[in-house]
Amino acid sequence: MPPLATVAAHPVLPSGPLPRNPGAPLDLDWVGSLRVDRSAAERRAATLTTRRSVKGAAQAAWLLKAITLIDLTTLSGDDTPARVRRLCAKARAPVRRDLLTELGMDELSLSVAAVCVYQAMVGSAVAALAGSGVPVASVATAFPAGLTPLETRLAEIHAAVDAGAAEIDVVINRRFALAADWPALYDEVSAFREACRGAHLKVILATGELGTLRTVARASLVAMLAGADFVKTSTGKESVNATLPVSLTMARVVRDYAQRTGFAVGFKAAGGIRTAKEALAWMILMREELGRRWLESDLFRFGASGLLGDIERQLEHFVTGRYAALYAQPLA
Fold this sequence. Notes:
- This protein is α/β, with parallel strands linked by helices and 332 residues long.
- The chain has a single domain (28-324), classed as TIM Barrel, CATH 3.20.20.70.
- Helix content is 45%, strand content 11%.
- The protein is built from 13 helices and eight strands.
- Strands 1-2-3-4-5-6-7-8 form an eight-stranded parallel β-barrel, surrounded by seven helices.
- α12 (276-289) links the parallel β7 (266-270) and β8.
- α2 crosses α11, α3 (56-67) packs across α12 (276-289) and α10 (213-225) runs parallel beside α11.
- The longest helix is centred in the last third of the chain and has 18 residues, at 244-261.
- It starts with 27 loop residues before the first helix and ends in a 12-residue tail after the last helix.
């Protein structure tokens, strides 16, 4: 992996729809070769918000793009079909029509990337989103801890796919990564990939619980070798969730994988990203480290519940010059 103080050439991807990552045999030499200098990663991550600025109309355009990258999420113990239907209504129309008109975007067909729910809520979400083109993502594999027997976790994936989920967000068993038992992690993720059938597999690493950036890098690579379509930072339930140094580390491994194999894997930042300013920082990271192609929803996502409200608030400020209270935004 190139030193974290430098930016290597972006991967060259084919035009049009991208082939799905088929995975590859576990290469322990490649996995073991990954090293990360934490200080260099933190310095590089800091430049993303101090040396780059997106203002005015350009910022409004970037924020509209950010909306299309959101997996609008509800993962609460008190979720109900009614709450999910309300979330899906917001997913279909994420920005008030009057704001789009003022922005000159009233003809824009705008929606979020996906709606993410627990497996028990998949049926309600699929029904509410019928005809919209917005897919349903389901968390699975004993989210967020991932500590039930493998057979139970695979059955949960099967149930979510059978209910209509097009994307499955699985959580790994962290002990495999912490013990550097890469064959066990590879086998686990491979089993998840097989259980997903045609549904896309997003592998949550729970990076706040992995200890070091080196472990994050190696776990990311193993997940991709096992066939992950996306690697994802966090469940949102850890004490530390998505951070820029962690995301930078994972993005560098995504780039290395694409350059070596020719297959592009997506990246999902989840947990703690609540403001438009934070979303812009992650988009700049993707643009600089991986290239413009990683600013499309098939390769980049935000996992968020509160982010959309702040983005809409910033768009209203651009239109009116005034900040509305967050509670004044249509509920997501």
